[in-house]
Specification:
The chain is an all-beta fold and 443 residues long. The chain contains one helix and 36 strands. The strands form eight sheets. The chain has a five-stranded antiparallel β-sheet with strand order 1-36-35-31-32. Strands 25-2-28-27-26 form a five-stranded antiparallel β-sheet. A five-stranded antiparallel β-sheet has the order 3-7-6-5-4, with no helix packed on it. The protein is globular and about 75 Å long. The two termini are 12 Å apart.
């Protein structure tokens, strides 16, 4: 049988005509593919965790209404799996495991985190080292899990935590802010618990911006507030309505229906996630709105895996939270049925801005007689890189490769005879950094 050629397309050149998008800037142009990194969909309400998911690929696990996702500096992802009463960790190889909770509701004490019960944890904050704090909603507690996996109760709010969703700590981890109904509350070891700001409708997530101000989303008021040091509030985004405004207009003119998630990109720009509006928005340094991920309410609008994130069409539904990891990827907690999505940073963009070395342009050759494809690239480090092949759903395709390195020239080759027709992408990973090339088998 005649071998099938591989047509290589560089991901950096991609144009989408879509009136929903405002004029782009460097942030929007710095991302490539959208994929699911955890969750395969469940019924959206009950505790559906099964021990068979433990230590297996995260994309094959059922999550139970996850509420928040945040990563450590190594790229491990932590998930508040609310209705399963546990915290999950997805490591850099995509394997999921439980790192806190027993998967049954209860009020555990201090000790090994995986032996202590939690109750509906729906807030989470992770530091660079992978230590994390939990808003243990049903137990009215804030807990900490250290690098050895031990959990302690930092404090309990005897007034109760009402509809808590937001949790944030300062850099020195001696101040805690958390959402409770209509109030943002604050705790320090010296002063205990107090009210930081009041008068909200139904709080969503909270963050600190790059100037040190706490910023809170109010999903019932459809507004985003910056909280001043005296506890007063200033609206920075939202028109307070369910509709109006949009891409290219100011954040204050635009409706962010059920705004729930927020994450700062730099001092002035940030991402917003709307639950009822089912979208992720980007607000640039000039306060103008751009649509980052389009969506619509309904499970059928969860789609787009393996596609460039700005491809026209709906991608997300009922977005709960958004964050950015240390590698610059955007993480989206989506849908009652439980999906964690990743919009991946363009590897070339990262290399140009942050790395001292990067891959040279990848070159391909196809042997049409023997049915082999060869990929070569230069890298100053002679260590073998991890090479993977993924389909449009973001699922790994098992393609055995041969690999050799001579004086920085990396050569990888594989048999392409048994690869089904379709679009794939090749991932080259080096120390947690990712480089991608698109690969299309045409026939």
């Amino acid at each position: 049988m005649r071998s099938i050629p591989l047509i290589i397309m560089v991901l950096g050149i991609f144009v989408v005509k879509n009136s929903l998008y405002a004029k782009t800037d460097s942030f929007l142009e710095s991302f490539n593919l959208l994929k699911t990194v955890a969750g395969k969909g469940g019924n959206g309400n009950e505790n559906e965790w099964d021990e068979k998911y433990e230590g297996k690929p995260a994309i094959d696990a059922v999550l139970s209404r996850p509420h928040f996702t945040m990563a450590d500096s190594a790229g491990n992802i932590y998930i508040a799996d609310k209705n399963a009463h546990a915290i999950r960790k997805v490591d850099v190889s995509g394997i999921i495991s439980t790192v806190a909770g027993t998967n049954e509701a209860g009020d555990g004490g201090d000790g090994l985190a995986v032996e202590q019960q939690l109750n509906s944890p729906n807030g989470l904050w992770v530091n660079r080292k992978g230590e994390f704090y939990i808003l243990d909603l049903g137990n009215n507690k804030i807990r900490k899990v250290d690098s050895k996996g031990n959990m302690v109760t930092l404090f309990k709010d005897d007034e109760g935590i009402s509809l808590g969703r937001g949790l944030w700590l300062n850099d020195t981890e001696d101040t805690v802010w958390y959402s409770s109904g209509s109030r943002v509350k604050i705790w320090t070891e010296n002063t205990g618990i107090g009210t930081y700001a009041d008068g909200f409708g139904a709080l969503g997530n909270i963050v600190q911006d790059h100037s040190g101000y706490v910023v809170a989303t109010d999903r019932s008021a459809n507004l985003v507030y910056r909280i001043n040091n005296d506890g007063t509030k200033t609206v920075i985004a939202g028109n307070g309505k369910n509709s109006g405004g949009g891409a290219g207009l100011s954040a204050l003119e635009t409706a962010f229906y059920g705004v729930r998630g927020i994450w700062f990109v730099d001092k002035e720009s940030y991402l917003l996630a709307t639950h009822e509006g089912s979208r992720v928005w980007y607000i640039d340094n000039n306060g103008l709105v751009h649509l980052f991920l389009d969506g619509r309410e309904g499970d059928e609008y969860h789609s787009g895996d393996g596609m460039h994130y700005r491809t026209e069409g709906y991608k997300v539904s009922e977005v709960r939270a958004v964050s950015i990891d240390y590698q610059g990827n955007v993480l989206v907690t989506e849908n009652d049925r439980g999906y964690i999505r990743k919009v991946e940073k363009n590897a070339n963009f990262i290399a140009d801005k942050k790395l001292k070395h990067c891959f040279s342009p990848v070159k391909f050759k196809v042997n049409t007689v023997c049915g082999f494809s060869r990929m070569t690239f230069y890298h100053s480090d002679n260590s073998q890189k991890t090479v993977g092949f993924f389909n449009q759903l973001g699922r790994k395709v098992q393609i055995p490769v041969n690999y050799k390195v001579i004086d920085g020239i990396h050569e990888v080759w594989w048999n392409n005879r048994n690869i089904p027709c379709g679009a794939y992408f090749i991932n080259i990973q080096d120390n947690g950094k990712n480089y991608y090339e698109n690969m299309i088998k045409t026939r």
